[in-house]
Fold each of these.
Amino acid sequence: MARILVIEDESSIRDMLVDLLTLMNFQVIDAADGRSGIQLAREFQPDLILCDIAMPDLDGFDVLHRLHQEIDTAAIPFIFLTARVEKSDIRQARLLGADDYLTKPFSPDELLEAITTRLERYSTITQASMNRPLGKSPTQIAQEAELQRAIAQSELVLYYQPQFSLQTEQIVGAEALVRWQHPQRGIIGPAEFIGLAEQSGLIEPLGEWVLRTACQQLSLWHQMGFNRMKVAVNVSSLQLNRTNFCQEIADILAPIKLGHHFVELELTETAILKNVNASAEKLQTLKDLGIQIAVDDFGTGYASLEYLQHLPFDTLKIDRCFVQFLDQNKKNGAIVSALVQMAHNLNLDVISEGVETEGERNFLKHQGCDIAQGYFYSAPLPSFEFEKLLTQKYGL
Ligand code: C2E
Ligand code: CA
Ligand code: CA
């Protein structure tokens, strides 16, 4: 992985560059002024330097000049960032030995182009040409940078949808569902950005944030007295497939005062089946940690009943598409009652999601389904509203 040093005094541009370059799979170090830039160049011997020309104190020319006085840093490709396109600047830059310049504002494509060309010419670790994932447009790269900033600047929020016991009508848990509170566009649903997060690898920090936040929130609710409630957190297949997945989960949970059995991870059957053997091992490790596991969107993938018996699940979550109209649609009704029976034979709890009508709720209750979740009870709620619901219902 090629290492790039960014020297830029304007923090918004510096952050943007760091985000973009990280997404392009470069390893990035950055400096806010010329002096620390020179220091970092000496210490880390980057494969390439991007440096702003106009900086107070030491400007870009000074930085390049000083680096060229040192033999070991002279061979590092150097690209100037300039807001001006004055010919005299460029000539001076070339004379000093700069390899190229980029005029601000530049597009992600121009940036990548300039870097790969320089790296290839210097034939340093030319992994750079492989850094552009196939078919990824500059717009996509920019969207990823935006999502990365959203994660870093905590624009994400969790909503919680209550889960009701069909026997007691009590709230027994909450599913955490992520939202993006975009400064311009308002609340954005996960359907619009989870895919992007998965493609870019941002699902890792996002998933970690979701799990940590949900568990911290539940721990607070436990402290308020709602201490039998569980929280369910969605986990993407990409997270599950990471080698260190279980350790990462354990590390997140370690500092939070919360029994592990109050945490349920929702995994889709498709995610589990991507790599059954590895998944089986990981699920067992999670179980050993006391964490609960639910099969999400059950019925929508290609899961055979065979594997259900052999994997250590606690809960089966029947997908919304089977629940819809199940009191009127005979087929859905038959599927759901068979699923409930089968799950109970395997000692699994059953949750139905997307319950929208009283008819659906009554049918599910009659079939012996354990838990229900859906607009009939409540839409997903911001934490303060969920808390209001709890206090109103239980008067604590
Ligand atoms: P899901 O896991 O199947 O989540 C249930 C979705 O159904 C949620 O949509 C929820 O708001 C919606 N829903 C709940 N009750 C009803 C209902 O009665 N009727 C209808 N029509 N819909 C209902 P949402 O919040 O937009 O989430 C969409 C998907 O995004 C989720 O589907 C889940 O796969 C994914 N997702 C959400 N949060 C996360 C997350 O933190 N991490 C990951 N990896 N995925 C997430
Ligand atoms: Ca789910
Ligand atoms: Ca679903």
Note: Residues 175, 234, 266, 296 surround calcium ion (ligand 2) (CB under 6 Å).
Amino acid sequence: MKVVNSLTIKRPDDWHLHLRDGAAIASVVRHSAERFGGALIMPNLKPPITTVDQAFEYRRRILMALPEGSQFVPYMTLYLTDNTTPEEIKLAAQNSFVIAAKLYPAGATTNSDGGVTDIKKMGHVFDAMVRWGLPLCVHGEVTDPSVDIFDREAVFVERVLSPIVRDHSDLKIVLEHVTTKEGVDFVCNCDPNVAATITAHHLLMNRNALFEGGLRPHNYCLPVAKREEHRQALIEAAISGNPKFFLGTDSAPHAKGAKEAACGCAGCYTAHAGIELYAEAFDKANALDMLEGFASFYGADFYGLPRNTDTITLVRQPRQITDLHPFGDSSLVPYRAGGSVAWTLEGLGDH
Ligand code: DOR
Ligand code: ZN
């Protein structure tokens, strides 16, 4: 097989990104803006973004933090709570800058305390989302402490997602950061209105990476990485050309000290190599030709947004990853810190 040393694709978008708030935004958003045309911004701030007004203000802060001249588009999400009203959904759907609502089961992950405590009470909100055409992004894990952490996604699919799809068959749903074969199979078997994002880190590591020679807090994220057979299922889905599967990095910055702690936060920071890590995973699977659809087309198509028209070029050339990146008034440890990524974005400036 011919070795490809350079790959030019339409500029990708990131359909799942955490940018945090305040001074932290500027330190991380530049990494995304160098690579991606736009990104779907997660609303799990402290306090969360629960109204269209808050989303508008948050978007303004992101735009202000962008590098001079950047055309990066932040697409905003609303954080669903027990108190979200159908009126707020309607308002969100009528504003072009909010393009989805995010369901965090209360307690499932970082800043999800204000999330939804009982999905059964959300029927009127889901009905409004169907009526006004607002997609639902889902953190797919049950919070039941009696369920093994490695089973929480599969159990969520069976107990929670399946009934939502059954009862709201026209609702557009994205199973965010899918990590299991069960999740992939479920999405494949649904109608085209049900899709999933896949992160680069879940394509590149299985759960052994959490314990390689000792505890590895920087590989800890939620949903936690699963067994190798699940990683294989994710690779197959990503390279399949099935438009239900598209790129969402879930790049989730946390200060070094918050990760390297007795009770460390969940999240891998990958924005500094946001497309390069995917190129590496697709290359290892001999499927570089499938990267463009996954990274640059299917997500925009799902959300009914325009595909980017400009291009990026990736070259087969390892790039060293620094130990630390600035993060507001502290610093963070990026994914692969001290190591390297096998592909480099052409024209990449100072990193
Ligand atoms: O690992 C994660 N980090 N998973 C999430 O769902 C949230 C995210 C964060 O906000 O840090
Ligand atoms: Zn996330």
Note: The mean pLDDT is 97.
